[in-house]
Backbone:
């Protein structure tokens, strides 16, 4: 089986090659005028400075955890953690560096044609996308190879399982910091800049006279590009790892444990290839529909994956191979159909998210209409849509759980989620093109490019709002579908330790039940349920605080340098970037540690009150509680925010009075409210859920170790 | 034991006597000038007309369900349903009729002194409060007496249990219609009136030139008084009934089943008396603190209840009587301490809600401060507070579950909730005084009473915002704490039917498990979790739609009758009331039926896909899913809305620029957003949760019957 592993590693390496090759192509295109390059350089410098500071701050936490893991669990686990953290950081770092160079080239290409702008922006996105999927796959597969082949650990041994979980933890930790820090930075800049610029001073978005405008463009890169990349990297890693852990448990002792542990990675490898091929299908048709062009890529990737997974499963698992997990019997063919379920879920989430956030449908239009009667009704309707938008995705996840479970039990659900995430390369590409076009629009505005260019970048940007919401819905949807998988990993681990209490004395006499009749289970559900709310509240407050600081800074600059508004004096862009950098780093620490520490603290409190069994029951329930509310909080925030943003765009397209009308002002308020919803609090819920789960798994490992 | 029942009935009757006596005292006070009486008459007429229409609409649904219950279960159950529905309707009807007469008298008394205004308004509220508690207690106790003593059913028999559950269903059904219909009416008027009056026309709230102003005042009565009364009536009934059902199951066959079924009603009876005494402690001290005056009443009631429950428990249960339910052994004394837990939870919820919605603390002040930088930051900070405000109440509920369960198992939790709800008379009094003072302010403004009077009524109104949030937090908190009780009723019923499958053939071979490892349990949790979101979204949309209709109607009147703004022409108040009546009735139907039909439809779908056992598991989990998200949705909406409202009041008190400043405009937007949050969608979640639970219990009964 070792050579299959090498093949999977080759697929991962191919995505790196694609990245290098495409980066060269993007960088070779025309970077525009000197003025454009000057602006791009300022964005680049700010983004680089922020990311360095963020990584430094996270590195301190990371080193502490590395040392803790080394002493609590051992070197392979600590190194796993480091691999996850470093690769996640690398994906964000490289992606962002491409993004800050592609922005100006997209602006330049957009002066010529929509197709040209789309092509550069999408390829820049695809680099990030394939790096995310490729590095994640490489991290897991290479480390698995090292552990099992070079160091000789048995694939289903505790060391391998714990090391993989630690790898997931490393990815999760970077992810939550990057999502939150980046989210606070980008939305502090966006909200603050809009309030003081658009609303108070009456100057358009990205006007060079606004001292927050460079910070806003920096934010797109550090939040929407680097933050999102870390998030999806983490989702990918945790999903694959959890599936492998389940395989190691379910097939332990049998003769196919290696194949079943390799199978999820093989799905990932195959879909890296189909994603690369899919990127070449993204091409503007005669209808000039940008969404249509992107859909072509997604559909191509999906269909190719559907085709390729059949022989892959037949060859690696065998279509008729009969397996049994718990009470459920299934075959290799059942697993293939579980993969199909994952693909169908992805497709449905894309379609539903487009419905809720696209300008062509009822939800966005209803918010635009409500703007006519004022700020209040805009926000009310936006909140109504955000609440409503959770229903269909939840039903899809419910349906997927039922079907995948019916096909192949819990392992079937795990394969469905893995296949869903295997498309991450393509889905992230859709998302990462957003900040590039957003930046391109900003550069066009600041460099005074012709109105037409701005129109082209705006059209790209509006699609970007939808694709950004799609990715977030996809990430959180996979978390919902994967909830049972992570919970199963927890219960199976617990069962294993309790059954072998002679080796793991801490678990002697532990008899944790997870029935809803057990009050500690209900306590755990409530406590888990509370985390996304508290976390969301803290994140929103942080953005509000950062935005207020920006408003005051900009007001101060306008007052001290009256020449700014006349265009005779240059605003001090650097100060706004600096201020946000400090604010974001400071504000991200406490909420990021909330999901890391909660499971541990909660476990020991319940243990102290009611004993070990109750504490294990409550902790397990907490893992599901956090996903039950987290799913709804995250979907409502990300879809609602996207809808608000596009309702504003819909009005700017000339509906309900267009730009400058009272309806437009109300829509700007809604957009402002939606900003931290969709780009800070909402997306950070996904890594938060994962961290809670991973920390619980690690806690079990640590308790077993002592 | 029969004479104890009569004693409890006497307590219930006493509350009616208190109501009659206090009503006469309130009506005897000065109703003010002719102009004031004319305005009050218009409000009265509108409120009456709305309530008649609402009851007619609900009656149609009610009659259909009555017939269905008669054929599906039998006459005692159908009559139980009717008793619950009619008494709930009566509580709202009488309360509202007092409220629309007390408003003008409060305004008149407020021209003289704050103490006088407070006295009338609070007594009016106390009438509603004690009617709610008294009628609820009477309904349950008299029907229980009739069934067990006159008709001779054994207290723990299925007929009695099902009839009591049906009584709860009747109350719940009225409650959700009243909460939603009333909520849509009142907030449609409030939001629409504010948008077009305050924001567009620049006239103050309650200005007689605003054609929506009478509708706004009507709304306070039909929503905040009648709707709230129905909600708390339902919460009271369902809690007491669920506790009695649990007692009938846990103590069936033993010799104390009658005592244990009577015990929850006896707690209710005792606390009616302590609540009545408590109302006499509400008196303005030298500090002129209104909240202080109300606190005196609450504290007096709480302390007296603490004292009285000891001998009551000793006498009815016996302090040393040893009991055992499941694995948990406990004594009468344990049950007393569970009651204490309920009282402590109530006290803590009051304090925390005051912290989150009072003008003296960080949360409200942070929203006020965020208003300085605009509409967007106001709403962001309001949402942040609304998310954050869920944490402490959730922790309190978690703590209460752990302590009460530790003391006396699930039955202990049931007694804790019952005791909590036993204070409903006092708590509802705090709340129901809100709409009276709100109306008094409106009448003062419209009748052109001196500025001072308006200041007095405004001071009362600000406290009303907090007490309204308190009641809602209290209702939803009890639902959270009671979740396990209702779930236990469901599982115990199911267990009973499955164990006696020879009598109940439908349950043959049913083996439903509720472990979180069961995928159908997770499916149920997600589906339950989705209901509050979908429901909230529909309710918010309905308010937005009603408000937009009002905005257009008012604009039309301003345009057609230019004399209105000059004060020379009288607006057509009736048309706004009419329009809202129709809108509210129409919009309330679909969302109200959502929780009624969802459990049934969901059960049969899962049954069809995966069989009975899976369907029963999923349905049970759904009952907890709806409370896990519902708790957070409801608390965040009600506390957040209250905070927004008082942030506006805080600015109007002269902070951050005061009335008319930009900060004030932003705060008005926040208040508008908070309106449907706190008065429509949020509070309706509580009856929604209860209905889902009750319908599931009835579904079991129906399935057992066939």
Residues:
């Amino acid at each position: 089986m070792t050579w299959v592993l090498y093949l999977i590693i080759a697929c991962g390496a191919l995505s790196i090659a694609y990245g290098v090759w495409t980066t060269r192509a993007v960088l070779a295109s025309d970077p525009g005028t000197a003025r454009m390059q000057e602006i791009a350089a300022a964005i680049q410098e700010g983004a680089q400075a922020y990311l360095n500071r963020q990584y430094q701050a996270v590195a301190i936490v990371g080193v502490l955890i590395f040392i803790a893991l080394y002493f609590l669990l051992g070197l392979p686990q600590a190194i796993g953690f480091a691999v996850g953290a470093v690769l996640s950081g690398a994906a964000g770092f490289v992606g962002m560096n491409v993004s800050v160079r592609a922005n100006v080239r997209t602006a330049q290409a957009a002066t010529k044609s929509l197709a040209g702008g789309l092509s550069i922006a999408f390829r820049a996105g695809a680099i990030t996308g394939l790096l995310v999927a490729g590095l994640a796959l490489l991290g897991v597969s290479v480390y698995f190879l090292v552990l099992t082949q070079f160091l000789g650990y048995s694939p289903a041994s505790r060391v391998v399982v714990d090391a993989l979980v630690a790898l997931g933890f490393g990815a999760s930790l970077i992810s939550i910091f990057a999502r939150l820090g980046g989210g606070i930075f980008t939305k502090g800049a966006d909200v603050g800049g809009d309030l003081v610029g658009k609303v108070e001073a009456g100057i358009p978005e990205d006007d060079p006279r606004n001292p927050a405008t460079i910070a806003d463009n920096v934010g797109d890169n550090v939040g929407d590009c680097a933050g999102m990349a870390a998030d999806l990297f983490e989702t990918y890693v945790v999903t694959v790892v959890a599936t492998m852990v389940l395989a190691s448990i379910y097939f332990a002792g049998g003769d196919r444990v290696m194949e079943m542990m390799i199978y999820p990675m093989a799905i990932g490898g195959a879909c890296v290839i189909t994603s690369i091929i899919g990127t070449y299908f993204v091409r503007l048709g005669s209808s000039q529909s940008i969404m249509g062009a992107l859909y072509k890529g997604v559909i191509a990737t999906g269909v190719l994956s559907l085709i390729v997974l059949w022989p892959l499963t037949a060859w690696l698992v065998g279509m008729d191979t009969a397996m049994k997990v718990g009470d459920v019997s299934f075959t290799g063919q059942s697993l293939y159909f579980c993969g199909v379920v994952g693909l169908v879920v992805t497709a449905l989430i894309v379609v539903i998210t487009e419905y809720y956030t696209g300008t062509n449908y009822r939800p966005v239009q209803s918010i635009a209409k409500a703007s006519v009667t004022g700020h209040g009704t805009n926000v009310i309707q936006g909140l109504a849509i955000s609440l409503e938008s959770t229903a269909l995705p939840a039903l899809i996840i419910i349906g997927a759980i039922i079907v995948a479970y019916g096909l192949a039990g819990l392992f079937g659900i795990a394969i469905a989620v893995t296949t869903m995430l295997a498309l991450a390369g393509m889905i992230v590409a859709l998302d990462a093109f957003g900040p590039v076009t957003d930046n391109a629009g900003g550069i066009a505005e600041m460099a005074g490019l012709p109105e037409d260019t701005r129109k082209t970048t705006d059209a790209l940007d509006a699609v970007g709002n939808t694709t950004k919401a799609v990715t977030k819905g996809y990430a959180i949807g996979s978390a919902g579908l994967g909830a049972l998988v992570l919970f199963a990993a927890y219960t199976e681990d617990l069962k294993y330790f309790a059954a072998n209490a002679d080796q793991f004395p801490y678990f002697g006499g532990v008899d944790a039940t997870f029935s809803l009749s057990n009050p500690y289970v209900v306590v755990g559900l409530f406590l888990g349920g509370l985390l996304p709310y508290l976390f969301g509240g803290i994140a929103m407050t942080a953005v509000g605080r950062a935005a207020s600081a920006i408003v005051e800074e900009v007001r101060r600059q306008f007052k001290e340098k009256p020449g700014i508004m006349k265009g005779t004096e240059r605003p001090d862009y650097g100060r706004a970037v600096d201020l946000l950098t400090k604010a974001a780093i400071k504000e991200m620490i406490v909420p990021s540690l909330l999901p890391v520490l909660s499971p541990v603290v909660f476990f020991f409190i319940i243990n102290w009150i009611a004993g070990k069994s109750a504490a294990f029951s409550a902790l397990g329930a907490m893992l599901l509680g956090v996903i039950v509310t987290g799913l709804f909080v995250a979907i409502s925030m990300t879809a609602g925010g996207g809808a608000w943003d596009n309702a504003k765009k819909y009005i700017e397209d000339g509906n309900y009075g267009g730009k400058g009308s009272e309806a437009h002002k109300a829509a700007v308020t809604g957009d402002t409210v939606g900003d931290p919803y969709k780009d800070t609090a909402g997306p950070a819920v996904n890594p938060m859920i994962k961290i809670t789960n991973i920390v619980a798994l690690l806690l079990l490992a640590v308790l077993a170790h002592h």
